[in-house]
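User: Study the fold:
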Amino acid sequence: MQFDHDLQSIQEMRDAVKRAKEAQLKYLSFSQEQVDEIVKRVAEAAYAKSLELAQMTVEETGMGVVEHKKMKNEVGSMAVYESIKDEKTVGVIREDRVNKVTEVAYPYGVVAGIIPTTNPTSTAIFKTLISLKTRNAIVVSPHPRAVKCTVEALKICQEAAVKAGAPDGLIGWISKPSMAATNELMKHRDVNVILATGGGALVRAAYSSGKPAYGVGPGNVPCYLEKSANISKSVSMIVDSKSFDYGTICATEQALVVDRNIKEMVIREFKNNGAYFLNADEKALLEKVITLSPGHLNPAIVGQSAVKIAAMAGVTVPQDTRVLIAEETRVGKDIPFSIEKLSPVFPLYTAESYEEAKEVCLKLLNLGGRGHSLSLHTNDDAVAKEFALEMPVSRLMVNTLSSIGAVGATTGLTPSLTLGCGSFGGNITGDNVTARHLINIKRMAYGIKDVSVPKPSVSSMTNKKAEQETLNVENIVNQVLKQAGSNAEVDPKVIAEMVNQVIQKISN
């Protein structure tokens, strides 16, 4: 009997979770040294296949640039490994001898890893490494458009892990993914935490699953060129960043905001770096390609070259064009150039003042990138600090490539392929998610302070005595009334005795 695709997908997911749970229970007994050796072998194996996986990804998804995918795979493997290799994630991880507090790490259990189509292999490798480092198992749901390359990356990791002594089944996946299976994976009783990287609807589903979840929101990243910036150097970095993997990293610059008094120099530098400026007619044609309906990005342009996107709009540009730019004044869901485009397409906003520049950046963030990232080019430290204090973002890249700077390639930020948006973006963290986010910590604390617990005061005891006596008197009176109200004859001596007791209580 042939089951339909959804049923096959769900059954495969359930089997993978079952194996992962069994393997993770065995993995619990592994020492820090054993865990670290497994993580090292997996990182090295994935790194060695970076180019092969990059080629598979571009071939399968039709997005991005092989050489850039290779770099992302390298960041997701060895750069991530270097950042976590010395972290303690097993047993006692910290002792405060002064305050007598000992911290002990323990894993979540089974991680559900949701993978995007834009960065499939690098994200799968990254999530696998931080899961293994923390003695968790992981079951991955690939994006339907990137199944083959994602599963291949996971197979490479699984083979290396088992060779290094890891239990078989510790790394699992769904080779026939479906939305039904992904949703059930996130709600599965044996899944303990979710790492969700994908669209807004997917992230919302992760947060509503009833499980602890790390989800990331959209990144409509403003890029402000302030008047003190080194224009030549800044523009070169911006074009390199925007054209990196054809804009598929969520931290890539999405909109240019330029001070009026440097605008002409900025435009000239962009043209010198392969940018094509669209006229009004060409802009109108491209708008129809960017969105098919207001606020909804056309997936056909994601991860495509500037030349190809222009051709889709019927616009002819030089073959060496790296980015497309159109001047814009408005921000909104119905303004195609102002939304997150995940492609080498820019709107250019002209700011008449520093305050207006901040206002435009804020509007762009509120449109769809709140909590994610902002790119700033300036030589004025006061400006940088003010932006850091005022902008609702979790990371601010200054004078660098925003796309790969946010993931830790050109900055001191933690190497990561899952970038939290914090409370600004409705996420549980604003961190670059890494191994420390996949361990729980229990604490053993000795008593270090002597305290004297005060005894009840005399007045407190007197009040309690009075309350008790009042209750006793009330009980006597009730008994008298009860007997007096019954049909049975009431003994006068009994009543007299009760009254005497009441009087004695009151007298005392």
Notes: The domain at 221-412 is CATH 3.40.309.10 (Aldehyde Dehydrogenase; Chain A, domain 2). The mean pLDDT is 92. Residues 458-484 form the longest helix (27 residues).
